[in-house]
């Protein structure tokens, strides 16, 4: 990277997270629909990912596919909703209990409506925040199987494998899958470049990835070239 200001890794967002204003904005908001038990609801398209260990941010789900529900199929093993939710030993009791309570509320909601993509995704994120990385992995993997066309679970898996399991092979595979599924969603590219530059320390691989992406998706050239020039 030319200097710290040009790093793809947007660590400055940590300040926003601490201040309680966590937000990523990528152009216009696209509705993201989730329906369950025969009903349909619409969210703003915001989703949560981890931009650094313990630092979470909301991002716009721009150019993400719309789904109607998480299919409940007999061939899929649904994550165990009765798995204990505990406060990590090193976590402040008050803040930890708040996270646990929010996770338990999601469990109640999912037992009533088990095909809500958003609730499963949020429960996975809460489990990760409570240091239950295996529980988070189980949920994110489940979502990639239940709704394989939706990119956000792959990004969360990529972050999980990057920061906690330190499995770079799996991390890269999930980031690239997210790009494949949502090639017009800029976040998939920034997360992948982030991984190559800050984790693998391989700027050459990041450059090649961006160049190949511009060739494959020429309509993304204007959005990807600024990232390419900053490397």
Structure in words:
The chain is mainly α. The protein has one domain (4-230): Alpha Horseshoe (Serine Threonine Protein Phosphatase 5, Tetratricopeptide repeat). The protein is built from 9 helices and 4 strands, in the order αββββαααααααα. The protein has helices at 13-19, 93-112, 117-129, 133-146, 152-163, 168-181, 186-199, 203-216, 221-230, and strands at residues 32-36, 39-43, 46-52, 55-60. A two-stranded antiparallel sheet has the order 1-2. The chain starts with 12 loop residues before the first helix and ends with a helix. Mean pLDDT is 77; it is low at 1-44 and 61-65.
Q: CATH class, anyone?
A: Mainly Alpha
Average pLDDT, rounded to a whole number, is 77
Query: Which stretches of 5+ consecutive residues score pLDDT under 50?
Result: 1-44, 61-65
Q: Considering DSSP H and I runs of 4 or more, what fraction of the residues is helical?
A: 40-55%
Outline the biggest β-sheet: 2 strands, antiparallel
Helix tally? Answer: 9
């Amino acid at each position: 990277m030319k200097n710290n200001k040009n790093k793809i890794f947007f660590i400055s967002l940590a300040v926003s997270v601490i201040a309680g204003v966590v937000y990523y904005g990528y152009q216009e908001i696209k509705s993201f629909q989730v329906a369950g038990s025969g009903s349909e609801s619409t969210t703003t398209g915001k989703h949560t990912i981890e931009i650094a260990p313990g630092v979470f941010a909301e991002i716009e789900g721009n150019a993400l596919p719309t789904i109607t529900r998480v299919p409940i199929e007999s061939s899929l093993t649904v994550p165990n909703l009765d798995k204990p939710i505990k406060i990590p030993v090193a976590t402040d009791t008050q803040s930890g209990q708040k996270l646990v309570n929010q996770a338990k509320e999601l469990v109640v909601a999912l037992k009533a409506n088990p095909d809500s993509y958003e609730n499963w995704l949020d429960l996975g994120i809460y489990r990760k925040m409570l240091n239950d990385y295996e529980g988070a992995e189980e949920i994110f993997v489940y979502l990639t199987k239940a709704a394989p066309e939706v990119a956000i679970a792959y990004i969360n898996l990529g972050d999980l494998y990057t920061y906690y399991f330190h499995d770079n092979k799996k991390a890269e595979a999930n980031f690239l899958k997210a790009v494949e599924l949502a090639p017009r969603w800029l976040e998939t590219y920034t997360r992948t470049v982030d991984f190559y530059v800050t984790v693998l320390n391989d700027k050459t691989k990041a450059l090649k990835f961006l160049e190949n992406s511009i060739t494959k998706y020429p309509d993304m050239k204007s959005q990807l070239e600024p990232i390419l020039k900053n490397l």
